[in-house]
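Summarise this fold before class:
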Amino acid sequence: MPRQNISSGTPWEAMAGYSRAVRVGDHIYVSGTTASDASGAVQHLGDPAGQTRYVLAKIEAALAQAGASLADVVRTRVFVRNIGDWEPVARAHGEVFGSIRPANTLVRAEMITPEMLVEIEAVAIVSS
C-alpha cells in the first residue's frame, strides 16, 4: 500500500524524524501538533483556546495535503499542560468538531516548552 508523508516544516520534524501526518490507504495519522509556527515560535501565548484553534487549523492543513478534511476525523487526543484549561480547550475543539463528533480523549501532559499549552493528534479515515 502506498505511503504519503506530509510535513509542516517545523524544526522538530526533521530533528526527531517524524512526519506531521502519514497517509496509508484510507487512513491518515496526524502527529501530536502544537501551536508553533514553521520557525518553532509558539502562537497565542497564554491562550489555551487560541492555541487549540491554531492547532486544529494546522491539522486541517495537513489533512488537506493528504486528500482529507476535518469531517474525516474519527479520533482526536488532546493533551493540556494545565488541567484547569480543559474547558476552553474543549469548547474550541467543539467549535470545530461539534457536528463531526470524533472519539476523543483529553489528558494532562507535560509539553516541550512551558509556552505550549495544548497538543492534539488525530486519526482520519477517508470515505470512498
About this structure: The first helix runs from residue 11 to 16. The first strand starts at residue 3 and ends at 6. The two ends are 16 Å apart (CA to CA).
